[in-house]
Amino acid sequence: MNNTEYAFAVANVRAAENELLSGAFIEQLIEARDYEEALRLLSDKGFDITADPLDGYMEGVWEYLNEIAPDREALKFLAVRNDFHNLKAILKGMIANLDGREYCLTPCLIPQDELYSALSAREFDSLPDFISDTAGRSYELLTTTADGRLSDVFIDARSYDAMLSLAEGNEFSERLADELASLANIRIAVRAAKTAADETVLNLSFCNSRGIDGEGLKKAALRGLEQVSAYIGDSSYASLSDILSNSAQLEKECDNRISAVLSEASRISFGIEPLAAYFFAKSAELTNLRLILRAKHAGLSAEIIRERLRETYV
Length: 314
What we know:
Shape: globular
Order of helices and strands: HHHHHHHHHHHHHHH
Strand content: under 5%
Distance between the termini: 27 Å
Structural class: mainly alpha
Largest sheet: none
């Protein structure tokens, strides 16, 4: 597709960026006396606080982007991982005789009721190609091993593979998807080393990524956190090697690396880049709002909240 066809969509997103929450407003939330005052501030911004003020936050963003994008197919890689989360939720519900749709996420590519019906009928082949094999294999893992952890790590890894596959054909989308997959592999290796995960778990845990080799990370994780740190230290992700023991800091820095990629992309005049950047900016906004509200509910200090906030590209 000729990138000039994105001219209208990019102009539209530029206008929408003006509605992103400002740093000044986020600071007001951080400095709010308590949870109730934070809710009042959100209400003044137009949030509905009679229920969960953040419910459906990203679904609205997704609908907006699909309305303005000249090629909706190109956006799919942004949302596909939620389908794999929903797969986990529904499968676990089935095993526990519960309706896992309660824990599903939006936006997603497969309607939740459609996914539920296919899984309930064990009609895995009726699902789209990007998830059908994973659905069948994860169901088999759950029912034969009764080990939810094995199923979870397998589904998580395949979710990144699906994202990478759907991103193919666009240089920026491929770069962003690979960065997300590479950072996921790093976090997996760190958790595995800290928990002394065995090789059975690790063999299912890593996704494909060009940025850093999952197989090398797996071997390092089997030898402990120091080996993981050394392996990462010899890669383009060396800046993360000294903070692996601090889970909160690692998560934040991984998010900040993605924000750096998106900051560059947001300045592109024609193409999918500004749309993807806006999607992730809203995702980061949601993450920060949830973090602030939970922290206020728990009575945490403003200093602790600031330490945990994610950067956005604006």
